[in-house]
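Changelog note: in this version the structure field was regenerated for every chain. One regenerated record is shown below for reference.
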Amino acid sequence: MQNLLPLLALKPKTVIQVRSADERFKRAAENLKLAVASLQKTSFYHDLSPQFFEIVIDEQSPSADQTRRKVGESLSLWPGAVVNLTGGTKPMSIGAYSAAAYQDEPVLYCDSQTRRFLSLNERRPLPKLRGFKEISESLTVESVLAAHGINPEKLHSVKPTEQQRECARNIHTLYREKRAEVTQFARRVRDQMHPRGRTVPKSDIDRVLAAGLPGPDNDTEHEYLSAAAKTQWITERQGKWFYQLTGNTLRKEDRVQAAMEINKALIGGWFELEVFESMRTSGRFGDLRTEVQSRDHSQQAIGETDILGIDLQQLGLVFVSCKLSDEFLTKPLEHVFATRHRALEFGGTFAQTIFCFREFRDPNKRRIFSDGCRVVRARMMEGEPDFSVSGEA
């Protein structure tokens, strides 16, 4: 990231990557190219098309003197280049700085802590750069994944519509006012697609769809379904409410899958959208996505992520798991460790993991879950989703 951000600020025509022979840094150099290629698809960087060159120092851990010679040779071939010291080992950074100072070229350091691009050569200032804040807010999930070596083409995600976010707000308001009634109705809706705790069989799906959703038997249930009808999830016919399936639903298994997704949105997915809205309006996160899953079925590890986005302060990915309650959380520790592992695998060391619960009903589960979060350094939030302030629960 500290190599990508200056590149985006400078928008150079040529990028020279001086690296050691270590295989890890060969991959890192390729990842930078992938990140740039991903951003070229956005309107902000459609004109970004640098030519990349690699200069390899034939050592696993180059000394300052070896680095100085290689960087000096590169500056002789490409005079006027800005030397970015960020991300190198101390000996390599010292060597690169020495070469730049000798040939009087600009030296840059990307300070992600203070969110600034620093000029380190007083005699040769940096060219005018775009602001750090503007650059960080232009990042996409795909580009950050690419920077970590994950092919973004393997990822599927969506951005909720305004109608879906409005539905979530309305149901959440109803939940605040009539929690017991909303919870009871949500169980009825869930049981329809999960009879006796199991997914409805293919042989029964057409009967379930024809019968429509449970209720409404009172004003609360009518308000609940009316709020959901503002999306494309359900539709009303003669006082009954029905699943409104979209996409390819020719096969029975496709109809089961489509109905299950709507069912999930109705019984608790709206809370996920409320978390999404709180994150979006906080100004602390960028390029938020929901329903994140892998297109490649061999990478099931990313298939359960509710919300994925970029933390604009720490410039890393944030993986968020949302649950309305702990009612169906049978293995709290397993959920904590699996979600955290997913974040580290796909987002690297600086990826964050946040667990959001509207309420815990079992104090013992809360204690186990909280202890697990402390062990893996994940954040746990309970109650109304509020990302306007930071902190650990």
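Spot check on this record: The chain has 13 helices and 13 strands. Confidence is low (pLDDT under 50) at residues 298-302.
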